[in-house]
Each structure stands twice: as C-alpha cells, then as structure tokens.
Amino acid sequence: MTNIKKRLSAERRFKFYGQLGVFLSLLFVTLLMLKIFTTGSGAFFRTTIEADVFFDPNFMQVDKNSSDKEISRASFEALADSVVNYNFKDLNEDQFIKVREMFTRRFDYQLRDYFLDNKDDYKKTVKLKITASSDLDQIVKGNYPRNVPEAQRKINDYQLSILDELNKQERIGSTFNFWFFTNGDSRDPETAGIWGAIMGSFYALMVCLAFAFPIGLFASVYLEEYTKPGKITDLIEVNINNLAAVPSIVFGLLGLGMLIGVFNMPFQVPLVGGLTLGFMTLPTIIIACRSSLRAVPPSIRHGALALGATKTQTTFHHVVPLALPGTLTGTIIGMAQALGETAPLLMVGMVAFVMEIPGGPLDPATGLPSQIYLWSESAERGFIEKTSAGIMLLLLFLIAMNLTAVLIRRKVEVKW
Amino acid sequence: MVYLALLLLFIVSYSFYYFGKNRALKIKFTGDQKLASLPDYYGYFLVLVVFLPSLIIWFILLLYKSNFQELYVMSPSLFPDIAQWSDAKFGLIMNKISNLALIVNIPEADLLKGQTSLLNMSSESELIAAKNLASFDNIYGWSIVIVFILLPVILGLSVSRLINQKLNVQPIVEKTIINIIRFSSIVAILVTFGIFFSLIFEAIKFFQYVNFADFFFNTAWNPNRAWVISSGETVDPEILKDAFGWVPLLTGTLLVGSVAMFVAIPLGLASAIYLAEYASSKVRDIAKPIIEILAGIPTVVYGFFAALTLAPMLKNFGDSIGIDISAESALAAGLAMGVMIIPFVSSLSDDVIRSVPNSLRDGSYALGATKSETIKKVVLPAALPGIMGSFLLAVSRAIGETMIVVMAASLRANLTFNPLEPATTITTQIVTALIGDVEFENPKTLVAFALGLSLFVMTLILNIIAITIVRKYREKYD
After folding, report:
1. Given B149, B168, B187, which residue is the final one in a domain?
2. Domains of chain A
3. Which of A21, A68, A147, A203 could form a disulfide bond with A361, CB atoms 3.0-4.6 angstroms apart?
4. Sorting pLDDT into bands at 50, 70 and 90, what band is B124?
5. Domain end marker among B123, B150, B168
6. Which chain B residues contact residue A363 at CB under 8 A?
7. Distance in angstroms between the alpha carbons of the first and the last residue of chain B
8. pLDDT at residue B475 tops 70
9. First CA to last CA distance, chain A
10. Count of CB contacts below 8 A, A vs B?
11. DSSP character at residue A413
C-alpha cells in the first residue's frame, strides 16, 4: 500500500513540475510585457509648463513682416530667456539658470515654430505650453524619487519649490508627445524621436527584401525543380541548413568584411545593413520556399508537361504561382526576424547618433532595434521610458508582420 | 531620382514586352510558315535584353559610386603630387573637399562665419575640386537616367529589328532564365563561402600580428594594448603577447551559457513534457504559442530587461542576504538568455515527445506503470536523441547570442567560474572591438574576425553534432 501511495505522490509531483514549468514560462512572458508597457507608456506624453510669452521686439531679430526663411534662420535664444524672466520675476543669476533648466533646451525652437505659424502675435502676449526638461518631466511622472538627498537629484530643492508653486497655479500640464513619432534622435530625451530609426529600418528591410526574396525564390526553384537529387544537392542542402543556425553577429562580420572591406561600400547606411540582413534571412526564405514548392503535387507538373509545356513554362506558369502564398509567409516571417535583429546592424555601423531622418538607403541611419540599444546605453534617466516605448513599437511591428503571415497562411495558402 | 529612374526602367521594360509581342504578331506570313516561337517569348526576349544590362550597369555604378567620385574629383591635373599621398592624407583632403562642396555654390552673403573661413583657407585647386564634386551628383544622376532610359530604349529598338519568323527566341529566353536562377542559387551558396572566407582572410591578417598560441592559450585579455599601434604598422608579437588571450572569453561564454541552460533545460523540458503528455488540447493550443513568443521577442529587449531590471534586482537581493553580486554578473545575462531559449528546448522536445508512438505508452500502462513512470522510463528514453539535439541547438544559440551579453555582461575579461562575478563573452568582445574606428589593418579590429571565426566553428560543430545525433539515433517506428 505504501508503495502505491509513494508512486501516486510521485505522479502528482511530476505533473506539478510540468505545470510549474509552463507556469513559469508564461509568467516570464507576462512579466516582460508588463515591465515594458508600464515603463514605456510614459514616453507617449510629455510634461508642459504654461508660460506667458510676450513676443518682445527687444529680444527678437525678426518681426511680423519677416519671411519664413528669415524666421527659421533667426535665433530665438534671447526671447526664450526673456520669457523666463517675464514669468518668474526677480531672479538672480543662479536662480535664472536653474529655472531655465526646467524648460527644454529646445525652448527657442518651440517659440520659433509657434511664431512661424502665428506672425500676428508679434508684440502680443500669449499663453503657451512650453515643454519641460526631461528631468522635470521624470519628477512629475514620479519616475524620480523626490525624497532623496538633494545632491543625488538632478532637480534641486529650489527647482522643486518652483515646481510645487507652478503645480498650485495649475500651470503644469501634459500633452501627447508627437515629437516621439516625428523626430529623429536627440541628445535631450524630451525631444528625441523614433521616426528616423523607423525609416532606417524600413529602408534596410526594403533592401533586404529586394535582395533576399528574388534570390531565395529563384535558388529554391533551381534546387527543387532543375537539379536531380545527388551529392551536390545534398551538399547545398546541408550548407543552407547550417547557414540558418549561424549566429547573426557572424553575418554582421560578413557584411563588414565583405561589403565594407572588400566592396568599399559606405558605413552606417541601410543599404549595407539591409544586404547583411538579407544574407541572414536568405536561408530562412530558401527553406520556406523549398517546402512550399515541394508541397505542390507532381500531378500539376505532369499535367502541364503532358500538354506540351516546356520545363520552364511548367515551372513558372504553374508551380511557382501555386507555391507563391507559402513563399510569401516564409518571407514575411524572415523579414520579421530581420527587423528584430540588432547585432548585424551594430557590425555595419548603424548605431551612430543620427539626428536627420534618412531619405534613402544611402543616408546614414540607425535601425529600430539599434536605436533601442543606443537609448538603453544612455545615462539620461529620461531615455529609459523612450527605450521601453521604442520596444513597444518594435513589438507592435513584429506582431503585425507575424499576424499578416498567419492570415496569408489561413486564407490564401493552397492546401493539397 | 534613382527610384523614379528605377520605376521608369520597369515601365520601359514592360512596354517592350508588348512591343516585342506585337512585332512578332505583325510579321507577314506566306504559305504555311509559322512563328518559330510563341509570340509571348518575343516579348520576354526584349524584356531580358532591355532589363538585364541596365540592372548590371546600375549595380556597378551604385557599388563604386565613391570610387568614381574620387576618380572624377582627385585628378592629377589638379593635384600633381597625388601619387605620393598617403591614404590618410588622401582621406583628409577628400573629406575637406566634400565639406567644401556643400557650400561652394552658396552665395557669399548667405554663408555662416565658419563656412567663409573654410573657403578662405582652401587652395584654388581644392575649390575647383569641390566645384567638380558638387557637380558630380548631377553627372551621376544623368548617367543613371542614361542607364535606365536611353540605353534600354536604344538596345530594345535595335534588337527588335532582329525579330523575324525564323528567329527562334524560346531556347534563348529559357536558357537565360535558367541561368538567372542558377546564378541565384550560386549566390545563396556564395554567402556561406563568403562568411567563411571573409572570416578566414581577416583572421589570417590578425595572426600576422599575434601568435597563434598566444591567442588560444593565453589567459590575459587586454585589447587596449593594441591601441598604440597605428594602421598597417608591423610590430613585434611580443608586445601583443598578453593582449589577446582567448581563454577568459571562452570561459565567460561557457559560464553565461551554462547559467542559461540551467534555466532553459528544466523549464523547457518540463513545459514540453506537460504540454505533450498532460495538457488538454485547449491548454496546449493557448500555452504553446505564448511560450513561443519568448523566441520571437528581439534579443535587444531581453538585454534591456537584464541590464535594467534583472541585474539591479539580483544585486539588491545579494546585498540583503550579504552576498556580493556584481551589477554585471554572468548570472543576470544568463538568466535572461535562459528565458529566451526556453522555447528552443520546449518546442523541439515537444515535437519529439509527441512523435513517440502511443503503442509504447499503452504497453507501459498495461504493465501497470503510472503516467509519470511511463514518461520517465519509456517515453523520454525513446525521445532522448531528439531531446539531446534540442539541447545542443539551444547551446549553440546561447553561445552566439549577442545583444543580451553586450547590454548586461561585463566588458572586462575575468577568468572565473563564479556566476556572481562579472564575465565577458566572445560576442561582447566582437562588438567592443568594432566600436569606434574600424581599421582593417589593425589587430584591435581584426581580432573581431578571429573571434567570429572561433564562434562560427563552434556553432557549426554543435549543429553538425546535433543533426547527426537526431538522424543517427532516431528510433524508427513505422
């Protein structure tokens, strides 16, 4: 009897371990997502300080008759300083610097952009919501503890007292952070945006697609339809399977050594990044294409051949179109992999600080994952939530791509 | 402009398809003469004639743009002593000229102060070169237009004159198509050889600076010793004796990998057994894809999680119980990596466990074994080769993983087997070696390729072993 009891409790224990394994794995997924989403959601909003802005002719180099070009070239630095003095009376020099630090460093750009659209406000006073500096933003959002000694804080006691006063006057607000979606990278977290990185990744993926899809499809057509099974095909097969397991960083080294070292291509550009990602996804695409070509039943080929079609006609008029949906799902999954890959981009230099939005595959750029890496390495506290927000966007794109692949598989793919 | 031109090339090619087809259809026949090929093929024929040369020339123009640029700008007539310049000087002057080119055509009144002084500092020939460079983009743009429009149209029109009823284009077209797809499969194979040879060549260059034995058996890793070497300089290997010792990197990699496997093997195997043997199909359908999400999350996300959440958490935990856990410990990186490779273990093992035929289980039950006894004594032994294969693939994945260790592990080499201490890995050092200036003639850059080669060989061997185990020892049941 004891034996049975022991065996049954061993049975229960064993099952429990299994459940624990599944539970822990699921827990990790949830924790990871929760962590990313709770830290990242803050980045979609930015803290503003309402200030009275008097477009004072004494501090401006332009007036309401100036052309747009003149205004965009003019400095609004002096006006920004005057706004600080105008809103916070009787500041000494130290206090002035501290109050100025509470606003974003691109204060003057914000004033300039407003003035470009509202030239009639010249010599008038308007209430504007000026973006706060990232350090203040983090205090307001509660990401910085306030109750640590002053020396450990980026915002000192004097600035905190001003903040509390502003809060009492209800001049601290929060708006949707459009800059995050429209700007390129920046040294200041409050103005840093992800658009440059998204475009960089987009160009790289386009290059990757243009390289890997035709080559992958044609190569698998050749291997499946035109070669007879034999030593050479076996060799190629083993070759491609091994290629699929090579670490991505090695593909990065290939891009660096081959494209940049031998072919003298430029550093940092999506063209090289995309080709490198293309080398990496090529095996994935070939494996997917071959299995969907293999799934097309021989009767289709025999039928076409029996009607007098040549080999090429059979292949390109009948077999390839039928296999196309399957090759598409494989390609999209390969592209999703390429989008999330950071190491190859690191190797070919797509991790530099790039402010401009790239206009093509030959402009210096970063990619989405490498931008996330760059931000995560940054010492500024405000970049932590930017990093998480970037990750949220990256995951969103990945989910969208994988869903598309699943949909194509469900709706379009031919089942034999 | 390039995109517009590329679009135009497609349009031109497409219209030549109809042109060729119509031309073939318009041929007047006498008696029972027929076209040698189907009319479509005359269209395809022209498309190939039009499209391929343009594409090839465009690739050459694109690849060697900077070379053409230098040839055009740095002419010996402007700089008579150009042949004697060093590469560094050439690069410096070229850089100056490209800066000048941006401003050389702007009216003087619009220039900023620094730009005017740059103009004043430049010699006459540099200014001319800058003007040439500024006009180069224009010339380059026009040459692309020629390649994409003029060349195809001329080629297409002249070749279309050859079309008559006796010209059998079908074999030509089909042979070209077969050659194109053959070329594609050669490219796919070339990638493998490309990897191998680019790694080998650069690694050979590296071993001209560093002794083979020093690299593989030395335990000191101080790559910054190589920073004193300027590019292309030959140095005594003795100087670099203690600079590039591979051993601490290998142990670090294995250490992080072991921590990862310590997480991934129990969790992955337990999940696989539960999902394959115990779970109802409903639970399985939900849980399996969710676990597989773990493999689809980009590694940079795990790196961020390890560096910003896991490492501080472990450090605080260590402080609270009086153990010193480094902020860059192998433990944090290994744990995150372990979570990442759970699905590699679980998915593959799950497949293998499910492929064990039910008759084996039924036999065991019939002898009175409980479910867990059946799994432990019958199912797992039968599935063992596949499970081992999945472990090996997971190990090879862990060794080659880059971003997690770059973000969470240490940069300093440390010969240790204690996971609480900082450790560095091969992949981390590859990335570190390539940060900053990349100089292909300097061991501090070249070491990345030597490390990459060792990584490539290690993962390749692991894969081959894994595949062999799975193939050789797989029980065949049908």
Report:
1. B168
2. 42-177 (no CATH), 195-411 (1.10.3720.10)
3. A203
4. confident
5. B168
6. none
7. 61
8. no
9. 55
10. 261
11. P
pLDDT, chain B, mean: 84
pLDDT at B374: 93
Question: Which residues lie closer than 8 Å to B408 by C-beta, 6 or more apart?
Answer: B303, B306, B307, B310, B311, B328, B332, B333, B336
Do B254 and B110 share a structural domain? no
Interface test with A, best of B301, B341, B378, B430 (most A CBs within 10 A): B301
Residue A129 backbone class (left: φ over 0; alpha: ψ -120 to 50; beta: rest): beta
Domain count, chain B: 2
The reply to whether B128 and B256 lie within a common domain is no
Which chain A positions have a beta carbon within 8 Å of B448's beta carbon?
Answer: 253
% of chain A beyond a pLDDT of 70: 99
CA distances from A59 to A103, A106, A108, B99 (A): 18, 17, 12, 33
Residue B117 located in a structural domain: yes
pLDDT tens digits for range A61-103: 888 788 888 887 788 888 888 888 888 877 788 888 888 888 8
Let me know whether B379 and B282 are in one domain.
yes
pLDDT, one tens digit per residue, over B294-322 is 888 999 999 999 988 889 999 999 999 88
Distance between CA A115 and CA A106 in Å, rounded? Answer: 14
A380 Cβ neighbours under 8 A, 6+ residues apart: A134, A189
Whether A202 and A350 have beta carbons less than 8 Å apart is answered as no
Host H or E run for residue A340: helix A320-340
What does the DSSP assignment read for B31-91?
Answer: TT---SS-HHHHHHHHHHHHHHHHHHHHHHHHHTHHHHHHHHHS-TTT-TTGGG--HHHHH
List the single residue in B with minimal CA-CA distance to A334: B296
Nearest to A398 among B2, B178, B296 (CB): B296
Nearest to A28 among B195, B339, B463 (CB): B339
Whether residue B118 sits in one domain with residue B15? yes
Q: Are B433 and B444 in contact (CB under 8 A)?
A: yes
Among candidate residues B252, B292, B250, the one with its CA nearest the CA of residue B271: B292
Contact check, Cβ <8 Å, B278/A394 = no
Contacts of A267 in chain B (CB under 8 A): 438
Residue B104 domain-assigned (yes or no): yes
Residue B195 placed within a domain: no
| Interchain CB distance below 8 Å, A32 and B464 | no
> Does residue B108 form part of some domain?
yes
Contact yes or no for A242 and B464 at CB 8 A:
yes
A215-227 pLDDT tens trace: 999 999 998 888 8
How far apart (Å, rounded) are the C-alpha atoms in residues B272 and B353?
8
d(C-alpha A140, C-alpha A145), whole Å: 10
Cα-to-chain-centroid distance, residue B316: 38
CB B256 within 8 A of CB B398: yes
pLDDT in tens, B267-293: 999 999 999 999 999 998 888 888 888
Closest to B332 in 3D by CA, of B303, B358, B293: B303
Q: Which residue has the higher pLDDT, A143 or A394?
A: A394
Torsional class of B340: left (φ above 0), alpha (ψ -120 to 50), beta (otherwise): alpha
A241/B460 Cα distance (integer angstroms): 10
What is the pLDDT averaged over residues A303-308?
A: 94
Which residue on chain A is closest to B465 by alpha carbon? A242
Q: What is the DSSP letter of A357?
A: P
B6: buried, middle or exposed (CB in 10 Å: 19+, 13-18, 0-12)? Answer: middle
* Secondary element (H or E) of residue A131: strand A125-131
Q: Domain holding B464: CATH number?
A: 1.10.3720.10
User: What are the two backbone dihedrals, phi and then psi, of residue A54, each rounded to the nearest 5 degrees?
Assistant: -105, 115
Residue B215 has pLDDT above 90, yes or no: no
